[in-house]
Write a structure and sequence with these properties.
219 residues; mainly alpha; two-stranded parallel sheet; 10 helices; 6 strands; elongated
Length: 219
């Protein structure tokens, strides 16, 4: 199917050794053998391969073929992670907001400065995929025409943020209490408000009521 075109091989570093040998043979001979056949077929394909692994280390560990590495590494391109190009974070954020507003047919009035600062300072270990997933989550959570505020951020995200930027050790209970308090402040303490708060926090309603009582937030 890729004949006279390009074939993109994602996560090539995860390819098993026995498949690596087949790929190398296809690259060297410019031919393949279809499944169930035994006659080689000539192909003209340009390959683009991507990986987030250190292939040189894998070669030393005998997990990646050195000959395949040099065959693929003809024109190397290095794409820095988000933490190395922080100027792109907000540009990508706005792009993904527009994408998911259109997909979900919702309108977002704005994104709070606090959320933008959180995004700018976060290391994004999952890179662009993690940022996109975060924006998709937030668009799902925010009311149409509303503002994305830090109270909508998942508790797990705020836990990681606090561990990165605070020298003081804050207990998990305190972080959880703050998250629940923020959700109640946003959605209200009515039955409907608590239902929405539980959904935003990713917990069940019974769990929310139990934790409200535990932290004395029903006073």
């Amino acid at each position: 199917m890729a004949n006279h075109g390009m074939l993109f091989l994602d996560e090539v570093g995860d390819m098993p050794l026995h498949i690596q040998s087949k790929l190398l043979r296809a690259l060297e001979r410019r031919e393949i053998v279809r499944l169930g056949a035994n006659i080689p077929v000539k192909v003209d394909v340009r390959f683009i391969a991507a990986t987030n692994r250190h292939l040189e280390d894998m070669i030393a560990e005998k997990k990646f073929r050195e000959d395949l590495y040099y065959r693929l590494n003809v024109i190397p391109l290095y794409i820095p992670s988000l933490k190395e190009r922080r100027e792109d974070i907000l540009v990508l954020t706005d792009y993904f907001i527009a994408k998911y507003m259109k997909l979900f047919q919702k309108r977002v009035a704005s994104v709070s400065e606090a959320v933008r600062q959180h995004f700018q300072s976060y290391t994004w270990p999952g890179n662009v995929r993690e940022l996109e997933n975060m924006v998709e989550y937030l668009i799902n959570m925010v009311d149409s025409g509303g503002t994305i505020t830090d109270s909508l951020l998942p508790v797990s995200f705020r836990l990681r943020q606090d561990s990165l930027h605070s020298e003081a050790v804050i207990s998990l209970d305190e972080l959880e209490r703050q998250a629940i308090k923020g959700a109640l402040a946003r959605f209200g303490t009515t039955v409907h408000g608590k239902q929405r708060a539980a959904k935003a926090l990713g917990i069940g309603q019974a769990t929310l009521y139990r934790k409200i009582k535990k932290y004395g937030l029903d006073e």
